[in-house]
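Predict the 3D structure for this chain.
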Amino acid sequence: MYQTPRQLEGLENEVAGGAIHLRAQTSWADSLWQYRLYVVDHDSPSAGADEVGRHVLVRVNEDDSVHEIAAPRQLTDMVQAEELFDRLVEAQQFGGLPPVAMTDDGGTDPLLLAEERWLTAAVLSAPPPVRAPLDQVPTADADGRGGDATVALDDLRTGDLVVHLADSLEHMGDSDETIEAVVVSANGRDLTVRDIDGGDEPYAIDLDQVVSGSRPASLLPIEAQRFRPLGQVDLAPSGPLGRIRANIAALRVLHRLRVDDRPAMPAEQAVLARWSSWGAVPAIFDPRQKDYAGLRAELRSLLTEEEWHAAEATTRNAHFTDAALVQPIWNALQALGFQDGKVLEPGCGSGNFLAFAPDGAEADRERLEAAAQQAAQAGPGTPPRRAPASKPSRPRRPGGRRRR
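Done. Predicted structure below.
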């Protein structure tokens, strides 16, 4: 069973030896103690086989002593580990924890211990989140495209399936025999196809030889659906680590949609809906902040130089409105008589207000950030073409302007 070192030096020795890896940490500038989240490596001499890859969350005090908040046997799910870290960070930053960690006799403040235990119990007692792998190919039922579709012979294209008469040189035999093949290229009446089992080299046939054609479900256009979040639970997570990971996941989905040139499917819309831009997590762009070095490198790999600088610029004003504020505003407008008509959203961000808009609202919107624009188009309040991907954050802190 993994044994957490009781002194900072021991933690740093384990990091240097590859036994654990730092996932995230708070800054000493924010408090008299520091929270650190580590992941246990298979090189750890004390970790059990079932603890490898799990997390350990600790508090490092000002005297370099280490207090274990949650052990690997408790943090069985990565998302729960990050959620607990984020909840502690929020409580630390917004006054939910006592101002000091140590008592005069060198012990831990009992109020701090009680708050940490309460937060830990609250997070770990919740059911682990169910997450579908982003790399999983959606089924036909999931994306709404159904099965293969018959296609007109003069509309055959690469990837379509055909049944053709076997009277070419490559397929000698009875002229009534038919062959199933996949179209490699199509140029008017001239087709190049390959046997459906892939056993032969591509060969040429004439359109007159084709008996029938069909288009695989994977090549059919996806009908866009409108995503309707139930509330903030479907939108941006609250803590910095959760926000960064949600943003990175949304960017990966956007890249896939851009390559496939299609709208988002429902499962992808749910990922896009958790996008919250970078206003609440400016440290991801600060190379001096070593806490997020791994996530910073991951984000950097997803963006061009221009996109990186554009994203960095949003840290000054990209703060999206929380669902707890958006929904009452729409309720009030409807109570005042609004049923349908045009609505101007001059700074819609990723689309929080659009996501909760009544069906009759026709939105005229303006977006200030490319990624937020793509997320909103592929995700939240655009009924016919795409679905919603809006996400709010918490109410802003004093100082600084805010856009939706």
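The longest strand covers residues 178-187.
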